TrEMBL record:
It is an enzyme of class 1 (oxidoreductase). Belongs to the NADH dehydrogenase family. It catalyses: a quinone + NADH + H(+) = a quinol + NAD(+). Residues 7-333 form the FAD/NAD(P)-binding domain. This is NADH:ubiquinone reductase (non-electrogenic). Keywords: FAD, Flavoprotein, Membrane, NAD, Oxidoreductase, Transmembrane, Transmembrane helix. Coiled coil: none annotated. The chain crosses the membrane at residues 377-397. GO terms for molecular function: NADH dehydrogenase (quinone) (non-electrogenic) activity. PANTHER family: EXTERNAL NADH-UBIQUINONE OXIDOREDUCTASE 1, MITOCHONDRIAL-RELATED, NADH DEHYDROGENASE. Its EC number is 1.6.5.9. InterPro entries: FAD/NAD-bd_sf, FAD/NAD-binding_dom, NDH-2.
Length: 455
C-alpha cells in the first residue's frame, strides 16, 4: 500500500468493524481490518447453530470474500496485544505465537466484548459461553451428547442429571437458548430415543432480576415469561449462580437464605460480558477511564479525549449508556467512516447520535418478541418480524437465501438439519494454532455479578 494516503486500522471484524470498512471501501484511504477469526459472525443467530437449526456457514462469512472487490481494504488474521500511541503502532500476534506490527493514522477499536464469569474463570470448564463459533460447537456437542449418554443409563438420579440443562442469565441469549433446548427436546428429539423420553428433560433458567428480558417493557417481559413456562422452562429469578462444577450449579438467593444446589450435567453461561484484554490494555496505556466491565470513556464523536485519531465503537464505547447491541456497533462504524470522509473533504466531524431501532428476542417456533418504539409485537407476528429483521442484516446474499430456505423448511418439518457433532479423536497432538492458551494468561479482574443481562 502507498505511504501517502491516510492509513486506517480497524481492530475487529464484527458489526462495527465490518460497517466501517465497508463505508471506506473505494475511499482514498488505505484500510487494514485486523481480526482474530478472519471472518464476520452474525452473533444474534449463534444459538440457532448451537441447537442445530442453522449451519455455521449461514451466519458467517470470510472477511477476505467480503472485501475482495475493495482494493483499498486489506484483511489480516491476528490478535491485537499492544499499542504504542506515540508511534501510532499496534502489535498483533499470529496464531503461531509470532508477532507483527501495523502502523496507523486512524485507529478504530471495534474488538467487542467477551464472556464474563465475574472473576470465577474456572466456571468456563463446565459452563461454556455463547460468543464464538467454537462456543456454539461446544454447546452443540454438550447438549446432544447429554441425551445420548442418558439413553445408556438406567432410570435414576444419574440419568436425571444428564437430562437437566441449566442456563445462567435471563437476557436475550439465555432466553433463546433455554427456549430452543426445551423445544428441541419436546419436538425434534421426541420420537428418536427408546430408553428415555426427551420431553421429560428439564431446562432451568437462573437470573438475578425479577423477570427475564429486562431490556424489554414489562408487558413483553411478562409474555416472554408465559411463553417460556408454557414450553416447560423452569424459571428461578432473584438468584445468582455462585458455583458451577461437574455435577451442577449452586445458586444464592439475592434476598438471603440458604444456597440451593441443582444437579445438571449441562450448564450454559450467558450471564455477563466484559472487555477483551486489548481494550483493557488500551485504557491503561492511554490513561482513560473505563467502567467495571471495561467499556472505555469516549467523547461525543466516539474518539478518546486527547487522542482524536483513536475511536472506540460498539460494545466497548462507554458513553450515554449506549446498548451492547448490533445496531449500536453498525451505527458506530458508519459514523467513524463518516468522520474520516469528512476530514478528507476538509469538514469537521459530527457528534455520534445513536438511533434506537428496537429489540428482538426469539423464544420458540412462532414465539418471538419485537419492541421498536411504541410498536410491541409478540407471538406469531413478533416471530415473523424477528425473522425478517435478522435475515435483512445477514452478510451476503448467499447467506440470506440459505437462511430463509432453512428457516422455512424448519417451519414446515419441525426439523433441525444441523445436528451433527464430533467428540474429537484421542491420541492427536494438541492443536498449535489456537488463541486459547494466550487468552488464559490474561484473566480479567473480578467483578460483582449484575442482575443478569447478556447483551
Amino acid at each position: 500500500m502507498g505511504n501517502s494516503r491516510k492509513r486506517v486500522l480497524i481492530i475487529g471484524g464484527g458489526f462495527g468493524g465490518l460497517f466501517c470498512a465497508r463505508r471506506l471501501g473505494g475511499v482514498d484511504v488505505d484500510v487494514t481490518l485486523l481480526d482474530r477469526a478472519a471472518g464476520h459472525l452474525f452473533q444474534p443467530l449463534l444459538y440457532q447453530c448451537a441447537t442445530g437449526t442453522l449451519g455455521f456457514g449461514q451466519i458467517s462469512r470470510p472477511l477476505r470474500e467480503e472485501f475482495e472487490r475493495h482494493r483499498n481494504v486489506t484483511t489480516l488474521l491476528g490478535d491485537a496485544i499492544d499499542l504504542d500511541p506515540e508511534l501510532r503502532r499496534v502489535t498483533a500476534r499470529r496464531p503461531d505465537e509470532t508477532t507483527f506490527t501495523l502502523d496507523y493514522d486512524v485507529l478504530v477499536v471495534a474488538a467487542g466484548m467477551q464472556q464474563s464469569y465475574f472473576g470465577k474463570e474456572h466456571f468456563a470448564e463446565w459452563a461454556p459461553g455463547m460468543k464464538t463459533l467454537d462456543d456454539a460447537l461446544n454447546i452443540r456437542q454438550r447438549v446432544f451428547t447429554a441425551f445420548e449418554i442418558a439413553e445408556t443409563l438406567p432410570p435414576g438420579p444419574e440419568r436425571d442429571g444428564w437430562l437437566t440443562f441449566a442456563v445462567a442469565g435471563g437476557g436475550p441469549t439465555g432466553v433463546e437458548l433455554a427456549g430452543q433446548i426445551r423445544e428441541m427436546a419436546t419436538r425434534t428429539l421426541a420420537h428418536e430415543f427408546h430408553s428415555i423420553e426427551p420431553k421429560e428433560a428439564r431446562v432451568l433458567l437462573f437470573d438475578g432480576g425479577e423477570r427475564v428480558l429486562k431490556a424489554f417493557c414489562s408487558e413483553l417481559g411478562e409474555k416472554a415469561t408465559k411463553s417460556l413456562q408454557k414450553l416447560g422452562v423452569e424459571l428461578h429469578m432473584g438468584v445468582h449462580v455462585t458455583d458451577v462444577n461437574r455435577d451442577g450449579v449452586t445458586v444464592t438467593p439475592k434476598a438471603g437464605g440458604p444456597d440451593e444446589q441443582y444437579a445438571a450435567r449441562t450448564v450454559l453461561w450467558t450471564a455477563g460480558v466484559e472487555a477483551v484484554p486489548f481494550a483493557r490494555h488500551l485504557a491503561k496505556v492511554l490513561g482513560v477511564e473505563a467502567d467495571r466491565s471495561g467499556r472505555i470513556a469516549v467523547g461525543p464523536d466516539l474518539s478518546i479525549d486527547g487522542r482524536p485519531e483513536i475511536f472506540v465503537i460498539g460494545d466497548l464505547a462507554g458513553r450515554e449508556n449506549l446498548p451492547g447491541v448490533a445496531e449500536n456497533a453498525m451505527q458506530g462504524g458508519l459514523h467513524v467512516a463518516s468522520c474520516v470522509r469528512r476530514e478528507l473533504a476538509g469538514k469537521p466531524r459530527r457528534p455520534f447520535r445513536y438511533r434506537d431501532l428496537g429489540s428482538a428476542a426469539y423464544i420458540a417456533r412462532r414465539q418471538a418478541l419485537l419492541q421498536v418504539g411504541p410498536v410491541k409485537l409478540a407471538g406469531f407476528f413478533g416471530w415473523l418480524a424477528w425473522g425478517f429483521i435478522h435475515i435483512a442484516f445477514l452478510t451476503g446474499v448467499r447467506n440470506r437465501v440459505s437462511t430463509v430456505t432453512t428457516w422455512l423448511t424448519t417451519i414446515a418439518r419441525e426439523n433441525r438439519g444441523h445436528r451433527a457433532f464430533m467428540l474429537g479423536a484421542t491420541g492427536l497432538p494438541e492443536q498449535r494454532y489456537t488463541w486459547t492458551t494466550w487468552d488464559a494468561l490474561t484473566p480479567p479482574p473480578p467483578e460483582s455479578p449484575p442482575d443478569g443481562n447478556d447483551r
